[in-house]
Amino acid sequence: MSNAATIAAPGRPQTGTGVPILEVTNLSKHFGAIRALNDFSLKIHPGEVVALAGDNGAGKTTFIKSISGVFRPTAGEIRLEGKPVSFSTPQEARASGIETIYQDLALADNLSIGANIFLGREPMRKRFGFLPVLDRRKMAEAARDTMALLDFHVSRMDAPVSNFSGGQRQAVAIGRAVYWNARLLIMDEPTAALGVPEQRKVISLIHQLKAQGRGVIFISHNLQDIFAVSDRIVVMRRGVMAGERRISDTTHDEVVKLMVGG
């Protein structure tokens, strides 16, 4: 069954209610004597964007790698929609609905949108009854349907993604996660190195993910973007939670003080 049938946007849920998409309890990751992450707890509900902020070395990368199958946590529990999970590989996390979009996007520049959506999971069909060949029609339909859901428009859907701007490339990476029905998207510095119009496009895409009831972890050093798109901000420092605030109840200055320990 095509995943494209599962991407229709549901109504906007009430954030902070019901069973969390992700619930992390007392998660720790130690590398010998180094406690990169220590007793960290976090909940993310459907339709909620939670920002992670902190200086380099605060533990943000260790946390996302611990929930996405790159690292095996030293201690703690991860629940996905109420069920305990443990991932040995990023492939297992993706199969369960957790997609990580890193800053480099992991796109194949010479391939089309459809080919990038199915990268490593290419659909095949039988030709002449027995020869397997790429199902290019399915790839093209997936690209068209998924990009339409994200309100993404380019003149040529079959063009290589190297032709696209930074914001358009972000849309392709997000579209890939949406097509495979990701329930939780982890976005690592998605607006870095983009111009202001492209940053606005990415912020708009994240609002659409929120409206579809998906959970988003938004990692950024850009406080302006964090305040534009997030419901809550979690500040990390030296592997622990330094503070948690609702965006509506805090200020840039308070967040900076939490980050630096002032």
From TrEMBL:
Gene Ontology molecular-function annotations: ATP binding; ATP hydrolysis activity
InterPro entries assigned: AAA+_ATPase, ABC_carbohydrate_import_ATPase, ABC_transporter-like_ATP-bd, ABC_transporter-like_CS, P-loop_NTPase
Q: Which Pfam families match?
A: ABC_tran
Name this polypeptide is given: Monosaccharide ABC transporter ATP-binding protein, CUT2 family
Q: Which family does it belong to?
A: Belongs to the ABC transporter superfamily.
Source species, please? Aureimonas jatrophae
**SUPFAM superfamilies named among the record's database cross-references:** P-loop containing nucleoside triphosphate hydrolases
* ABC transporter domain ranges (all copies): 22-259
Identify the keywords attached in UniProt to this record, alphabetized: ATP-binding, Nucleotide-binding
